[in-house]
Amino acid sequence: MSAAVPTDFVRGRVRTGMSELDPSELLPSNRLQTQVLEGDVTQIHRGHQYASTGDTFIIGETTFEVTDVTERTLGDLTDEDARAEGMADLEAYRQLLSRTHDDFEWDDASGVVRHRFERQ
Q1: How many Å apart are CA 17 and CA 70, to the nearest integer?
Q2: Which domain holds residue 24?
Q3: Is position 4 within any domain?
Q4: What is the DSSP string of 34-92?
Q5: Which of 37, 84, 82 is nearest to 57 (CA)?
Q6: Contact 46, 74 (CB under 8 A)
Q7: Which domain of life does this protein belong to (predicted)?
Q8: Dihedral sign, Cα of residue 52, residue 112, residue 37, residue 11
Q9: 8 A C-beta contact, residue 66 and residue 56
């Protein structure tokens, strides 16, 4: 009997092992990718899981590795999380989400997925 292959459910598909991502899958704007490259953003919360721990992506000529993927709620977010996403504090982060997402209303119970990454 063989051992089961570990899998992750990512954006509607099952993935096995590590892979190289297109950075726009995880980081949906050029501005955000630039902030990651400059070291101002070291994590992003998204509504779904877009990467797995160990996945890599390249911006310019710099490789980044996803180091942690964690399910959370909006109520779990802190000022520290907001700063890791390039914002001054949690209130600024809330305002950004309201401006960039139509019909967005902050609900502490809403599920999100934190993706942390590091420059390699």
Answers
A1: 17
A2: 20-119
A3: no
A4: HHHHTTS--EEEESS----TT-EEEETTEEEEEEEEEEEEGGG--HHHHHHTT-SSHHH
A5: 37
A6: no
A7: Archaea
A8: positive
A9: yes
The CATH number linked to 96 is 3.10.400.10
Cut 0.90: pTM above it: no
Classify residue 64 by burial, with Cβ atoms within 10 Å: 0-12, 13-18, 19+: buried
Contact, 93 vs 100, CB < 8 A?
A: no
Residue 86's nearest CA partner among 43, 26, 117, 28 is 43
**Is 66 in contact with 116 (CB distance < 8 Å)?**
yes
The number of distinct structural domains making up the chain is: 1
Q: Looking at the domain assignment, is residue 34 inside a domain?
A: yes
* pLDDT tens digits along 42-96: 999 999 999 999 999 999 999 999 999 999 999 999 999 999 999 999 999 999 9
